[in-house]
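User: quick one
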Amino acid sequence: MNLPDEFIEKYTKLLGDEAESFFESFDTEPQKGFRLNPLKSNYQNVALNLEHPVDYSAVGYVGSVSGNSLEHQTGYVYSQDLSAMYVGEVCGPRPGEKILDLCAAPGGKSSHLASLMNNEGLLVSNEINRKRALVLAENMERIGARNVIVTNEDPAGLLKTFEQFFDKIVVDAPCSGEGMFRKDHAATKYWHKDYPNECAARQKLILADAMKMLKQGGTLVYSTCTFAPEEDEQIITWLLNEYPYLELVPIKKYSGMDEGRPAFSDGNEELRGCVRLMMHHFKGEGHFIAKLKDMRPVGENVSKKKKGKKKHGKKAAMSSEQVELWQNFAKEFELEGFSLSNLKVLGDHLYLYQESWPDISRLKFIRPGFLLGTFKKKRFEPSYGLALALDPTKCQRKLAVEKEDWQKYVAGNVISLKERPAQGNGWYLLECEDKAFAFGKVVDLTVKNFFPKGLRIF
Ligand SMILES: C[S@@+](CC[C@H](N)C(=O)[O-])C[C@H]1O[C@@H](n2cnc3c(N)ncnc32)[C@H](O)[C@@H]1O
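Assistant: Done. Structure below.
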């Protein structure tokens, strides 16, 4: 491929003997990857080739997945570059933690983080660009996570709500994208000699806001998809100088992973603890990852001081009619873990929003909690996301259909039944090959279509 002359000049100097194989790697075939989603109880029940697992993630595989497959539609699988999937592993989210993914769309890292949190704790997935934030929300819905808020703020906008709040923050920063040149040749057109420095200036602003939202004792994971030292090692040097209480946590290197390069910055040997994923050594695209820990003792911080304050702000109460409609639905589906104190109505929408989460009413959001459904003239219509978050193995009110009927439904058509289900008319969780794929409403011998129009496939 044609790389910009100044790019070649720069990396010839930086990489010396290695430069030739580095440049050759831009002409090699990219290898694809995917992750399975342990939020689904039977997550290994997928018609996919699982013979090539990666060694750095228990849920990652080499291979490709069709966006039109049942596995993809039901959120059992997420296509993700083999390098990108190491970021979530390095973060190592734990159930119960409060985590921020600050630059999150389209959701590769966020879906990975949420899939490892067992629906416990809170993940705030933020994206500054509204169009991209909408795609992010769709992807988070698909994986069936119940503990995610999707916001659409610039990093400074989040500060008013989340000062010193998070246990872990992932900053997968907007960057010069050199590591994506192989996959996306057009990306070379935006590149110019000063681009990495321009990106670095923006990265510092984003990180300065991120640092204000990190709890004392918290962990920051910084990643880019570029090889540029200005945006990689030099940013880490800047962080270490600016925030002397931060320490680099050495990241484990698996086969083909490079160390960070001290010579690309101020010579600090600790930079070796970072990871460089270089296409001439590793099978994924180009990436850089660093992990830093705030070493100050976990003490009184702002969010604790505010403890006495009512966290929810104005929480719209449900009307008695809404309570009854929801409770009837929840009883029919034997839903557990949805206590009324954790439910919130906004407009006609009903959300699961844990009482312990802070008031986000001052933020621009796409999903202010997990959308359970919508109240419509004396009835409750469950959300598509709720269907994907339910465990079909535990649900009695379900209807299993063949693959052809799944195809019809996700294309926007009704399903015809040979006989009426024993439980009569009404809402059913639809499943195919033991995977919940939507709610459908049975009226006699027809399953009416409620598949979201914008997500139709085929
Ligand atoms: C590398 S992409 C994120 C990819 C994502 N983490 C994933 O795994 O799917 C960087 C994101 O940062 C967003 N961004 C751009 N400028 C930003 C800014 N000033 N502050 C925060 N995010 C920004 C972009 O819109 C883009 O979605």
